[in-house]
């Protein structure tokens, strides 16, 4: 299968794709204007308009939208159904932390962690939970 690079697509296809991504960014940030979206990135309105005019959109802004809003990169870029939005719900964060902690135990190996880090994985999971809550609070 031949892979086609985005920049090699016809300009009309790139423009339509970028317009769709920008529309999903509007949804993610819950804004409706170029001005409001530009403000989210601390850039000029003309920069946002240029994305749609040229069919180019720097990945850093898509990634920033993902980090700021919690929406999945897959959804932002390709409009897939795997939308995930983090909510400011301490019980949900605690549950997520438990899952992450369990996965870390399995991935790294429980014995190695226990023997070498004096319970460090539990401390890591607790810190992750704290950091995640702090990040969510700054998004509001």
Write a structural description.
This protein is an all-alpha fold and 140 residues long. It folds into 2 domains: 6-78, Orthogonal Bundle (434 Repressor (Amino-terminal Domain)); 90-139. The protein is built from 8 helices and no strands. Helix 1 runs parallel beside helix 4 (59-69) and helix 6 (90-108) runs antiparallel to helix 8 (120-139). The longest helix is centred in the C-terminal third of the chain and has 20 residues, at 120-139.
- How many distinct helices? 8
Approximate helicity band: over 70%
Mean pLDDT reading? 76
Largest sheet geometry? none
User: Briefly, what CATH class of the largest domain?
Assistant: Mainly Alpha
Rg for CA atoms: 19 Å
Percentage beta strand: under 5%
Summed up, the domain count is: 2
**Overall form:** elongated
Structural category = mainly alpha
Give me the strand/helix succession.
HHHHHHHH
Fold-level CATH name of the largest domain:
434 Repressor (Amino-terminal Domain)
Distance between the termini: 44 Å
Just name the CATH architecture of the largest domain.
Answer: Orthogonal Bundle
CATH superfamily of the largest domain: lambda repressor-like DNA-binding domains
What low-confidence regions span 5 or more consecutive residues with pLDDT below 50?
none
Number of strands: 0
């Amino acid at each position: 299968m031949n892979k086609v690079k985005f920049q090699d697509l016809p300009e009309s296809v790139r423009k339509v794709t970028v317009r769709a991504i920008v529309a999903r960014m509007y949804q993610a940030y819950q804004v409706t204007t170029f001005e409001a979206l530009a403000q989210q990135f601390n850039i000029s309105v003309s920069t946002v308009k240029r994305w749609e005019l040229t069919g180019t959109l720097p990945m850093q802004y898509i990634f920033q939208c993902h980090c700021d809003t919690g929406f999945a990169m897959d959804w932002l870029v390709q409009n897939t159904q795997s939308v995930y939005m983090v909510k400011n719900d301490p019980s949900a964060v605690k549950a997520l932390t438990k899952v992450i902690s369990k996965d870390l135990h399995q991935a790294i190996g429980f014995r190695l962690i226990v023997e070498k880090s004096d319970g460090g994985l539990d401390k890591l999971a607790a810190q992750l939970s704290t950091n995640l809550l702090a990040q969510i609070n700054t998004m509001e």
